[in-house]
Amino acid sequence: MRIFLILFFFFCQPLNSWGSHAFAQYGTPKYPKDFKYFDFVNPDAPQGGTLTLANPDRRTSFDKFNPFTLRGVSAPGVAGLMFESLAIGSSDETSSIYGLIADDMVLAPDHLSMTFHLRPEARFSDGSPILASDVKYSFDTLMSKKAHPQFRTVYADVKQAVVLNDHLIRFDFHAKNGQAPLLVGTMPIFSPKWGVKADGKKVSFDDLAFETPIGSGPYLIDSYQMGRNIVFKKNPQYWGNHLNVRIGSNNFERIVYKLFSDDTVRLEAFKAGEFDAIVEYRAKLWAKSYVGSKFKSGQLKKEEFEHHNGAGMQGFAMNTRREIFKDPRVRQALGLALDFEWLNRQIFYNQYRRLDSYFSNSLLGASYQANSVPKGEELALLEKLKARYPNEIPATVFGPMPSANSTKSPNSLRGNLLKARELLSQAGWNYKDGALRNAKGEAFEFEMLEDSPFLLRILSAYVRNLEKLGIKANVRTTDFALYQKRLDQHDFDMTTIRYMDSQSPGNELLDRFGSMAADENGSDNHIGVRSKAVDQLIGEITNAATPDKLYSASRALDRLLIHQYFVVPHWYNPTHRVAYSAEMGFPPPPLYYTAEWWILTNWWRKSNMQETK
């Protein structure tokens, strides 16, 4: 589900100002009303051929098509290829969206409602027109308990959807929220006929499994083998080919996903020519395994593509619902046991940089400059919160951001572990009888839950360092389906999380760090953050009217989260590592993009070039 939300939010940003063809948060959108196509596409891209891809993420199987419900694992590609929204974002700017299903958008002067006019030519895959009632049905369904609970958090500020006529719909908001117009504009739209059987009976939305989805996207499901592969074909009746926001996109006639059981099998399949492109996230594999006769001959290529995405946060997350992780001193101590410099040198081939913020590689983070301290509006926000919630704002947030733990000289792992031991002692944990124990004599022991073996070398090194403190960490790897189920139920001690960054963060933060999401199964608040101060800062972010207000609020939130030590930060790469067949063609990458989505939407097959000409 997080992958689905990325697809709909990554390329779209929150807005306050308005016009008919586009919305911009600050100033005016880059593209005028009569623009022909986005600058980051090739408008003459060859059409046709097949793109074959492997697992786009950690899933190794699927048991449903419906990407909008909690139970089960959805098939890759369905969310992005089969469903569309009223508006779509641009990958070369951070604050604008443009009409897709809608051709006109108006934000009320009081910012308490947003009205969309639907294109009369817009059609679902079954040929039926997309009407305002379908948009309302989609919203009401996503807000119901039949859909994934994340949607109720994301759209919490939307009061209702009101049908004005067949092609006009208005969304009313509970209060002013700078991101609310964006959220309703990028909401996925689907038909009420999805799940209707031949006898007229309808399958409940939360029971939809392999019933054919009815959306308005450019692709249809052609065939599938449950849990193994899925094949999409271009809808010959796709309604949106002529739109400026679609020119140069969706260039393949067929898209095939093959799901492999593990990373080694997948890489060998790529080198054997079983699929066309792969995005590599493992430094060792990139450095050592992308070799062979096809790379030497040029049939296969490997390349690192620069991006300007914020790095977000990845790390070992502690579930603060567990008593053992409730004390921030304990969480800080566990962070001191990770030796990034050793990992980068011995395992990562020095390809990574250390994360030191929830908004790393971005002006949104409090680490945007070295030794930064809160000032101006950011300082005022923190002081106001300190006065209101004194127990939630540690005094340390008013000083510099803590630098990521390092073992570079004059620091050392031994020195870091000594600091960790002191912090643990202050929290009531001391070494006795061969283990770190609390006053009750209970040993400090927890489970590290993972779904992939590729982290085992990293985990082994981390576990060895924890053992030096008397802590026992039991590593458990499981299949993705069970892992996701336990994650959805927040049933874990420690696990690896990845929070994708946005250039304009907003309501997704409520699902990630909001108090209401802490006890909601399926939410992204795996850490279990419950803080009125955090909730208020998220509100400041979503309502920011200027870049300066956004930066002040996001940096204040970053400081507060970092100083609570919820996560042992990992590392990031400022490039996308992509290996691909020489048959693939592509335009220069945009500024802000995920590699998988760029390949899927903007690449083409060179063998079709002559035919196209």
Automatic annotation (TrEMBL):
Keywords: Signal
GO aspect biological process, one term: peptide transport
CDD domains registered for this protein in UniProt: MbnE-like
Residue ranges occupied by any Solute-binding protein family domain in the UniProt entry: 98-517
Gene3D superfamilies given in the database record: Dipeptide-binding Protein, Domain 3, Periplasmic binding protein-like II
Gene Ontology MF term list: peptide transmembrane transporter activity
Signal peptide stretch: 1-22
Entry's Gene Ontology cellular component terms: ATP-binding cassette (ABC) transporter complex; outer membrane-bounded periplasmic space
One Pfam family in the UniProt entry: SBP_bac_5
Protein name per Swiss-Prot or TrEMBL: Microcin C transport system substrate-binding protein
